[in-house]
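Pinned message: reference record for Exo-1,4-beta-D-glucosaminidase
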Amino acid sequence: MGPISVVVDIDDPVESSPAKVTIRAEAQNLENTAVVLDAEAVVTGNSCSGGPLKQRVKLAPGEKKLVHFTKTIKNPKIWWPKQWGDQPLYSAKVTFSVNKAVSDTAQTNFGVRKVTSFVNQYNDTQYSVNGHPFQVNGGGYGADMFLRWDSDRFTRIVEYMLDMHQNTIRLEGKLEHPELYEICDKYGLMVMPGWECCDKWEAWAYNDELAIFPPPVWDDNDYQTANYSMIHEASMLQPHPSVLTFLVGSDFWPNDEATELYVNALKNAGWQTPIIASAAKRGFPALIGPGGMKMDGPYDWVPPNYWYDTEPSEDRLGAAFGFGSELGSGVGTPELGSLKRFLTQGDLDDLWKKPNKNLFHMSTNVSSFYNRKIYNEGLFKRYGAPTSLDDYLLKAQMMDYEATRAQYEGFGALWTASRPATGNIYWMLNNAWPSLHWNQFDYYLHPAGSYFGTKVGSRFEHVAYNYQKKEIWVINHSLDQTGARKVEIELIDTNGKQIAKQSVNTKTKANSGFKVADISSQVNNLSSVAFLRLVLSDSKGNVLSRNVYWITKSIDTLDWDGSTWYYTQVTSFVDYTPLAKLSTAQVSVTTGSTRHAAGVPGTRTRTVTLENKSSVPAVFIRLTLVDKSGNDVNPVSWSDNYVTLWPKEKLQLEVGGWDASGDSIQVSGRNIKATTVKL
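Predicted structure (tokens):
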């Protein structure tokens, strides 16, 4: 018996339509005589009714035949991405018997869901899941450096992604074990698998970017390898409801011969989700058509206003429009507890004393990313030259936080713009080994600034600041959350004095982003750095999102005309140096008893209450759960972190761990005294 595939046909609206389910498996007679095969399929799960489906199949010696079973589920339970609903799974089991003896059997799970896509008028791909427009928000996965599979570790990664409100993980080339897709099916995380860039998979005559030139174009053996590889991957991936699409190219599109092999293999496997030519707009094969994804960077640091600077879109590269298949500001600085695990003291000193030095844990010596020069220029000129390693790391976390938050907020806010921001894959989600950049959490699974910037910027319902236009936007990633909302906007100076305050009543719109206020007049009158707090509440007063920015009346000036493939240069930087001269704030930290909090990953959860007892803001408070030896507890989840408190403000957080090793919480920040609080 070959692999089982399950083809699900369902009309919109899926919530009220029956599902036609076709179960397929190839039967092969391995004998040198004809056989009569009794084939049986059983579908179970979610109160699925009906007996086994049976048929008798005659096979000549050596013959192969695809056996089909069809069943209609009148009221199917629909599989949804996590943020939109539940993940009910059905089971399909097929058994082949000869002379009443079982010859072979196989089983697979599947879900009832529907994925489609189209290329809009701007040549941008837009997905729909179960008939609803689906904005892709996720990250690019890095397999282990030795390709070791660890299901527990990957489960933690999925839990981290969902905690960051991400909905999709992109796999480039390293398509991993079947268990990866089973985990994503269970948790409701969509997957974008596809072939890899920069190697033999893209050795086309028209690819002039390989390390070898001229490219080692495919021979007959290569086409055969690619064909069997696609057959295998298609059959393995096909039943999984978490699979959103398949990219048959990454940086470059496949030639016509390879495209035909890929498409045939996918279709023969019963493939139903979109087949995308490549992750870039360089070209496409006629058989598939335009891929509708952009790969225009950035890959290194850019300021927060980059994402909102969308016009004219022909020149704005990675800004928040269209489908960005891999892009980001290159951030992901590990905190000290992780850095000490892979850097020497000399290496640590180099981070802040030699900002332009080439670094082993960045990239290779021929890479554009061999050092932190671009990133450090922004840090030194915006926040001021660091005075110590601790000062450098604090400023780095502030840089990372504002970078990822702005990226996800920009795409979320402009999701329903005239040219919609249809997809956003942060480059990258995680690292294959200990690294100094390109991650949303580090190799040791420690979440830092880039993680919590992502988490805040991707909230289900959120309120955000548009740096470019100095506007306030409401973002709603839900399918059904509507009704009255209140947005509270307040500006204070570095001494805690109120500059402006207003409330805006609005009605939220499901699955959209929209402007609710223009505060440019207030921001343009600022004389120095100020803090902006945005609070989104529902009609009952429940806080849905709380968000604090440090801003000035100016923004970083971008030289769009001088852009490279990996970043856009800043010619004039904002001045955040007054943040180094803040008055000290006094913050109390208290913890509650162990419990389980809904929505917080982990098994042992505590309440952590922060209270600013001062008349000045307490800025960028970071909290680290450590064990008795002072080592970071990883993995760990915080309902929020790297937070800024208004004068006299109290904020309750939740911290969750996966084991009992947490002993205390290290507390530090921009203008508070570092301390350790015992649990």
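Pinned by admin. Summary line: The first helix runs from residue 151 to 163.
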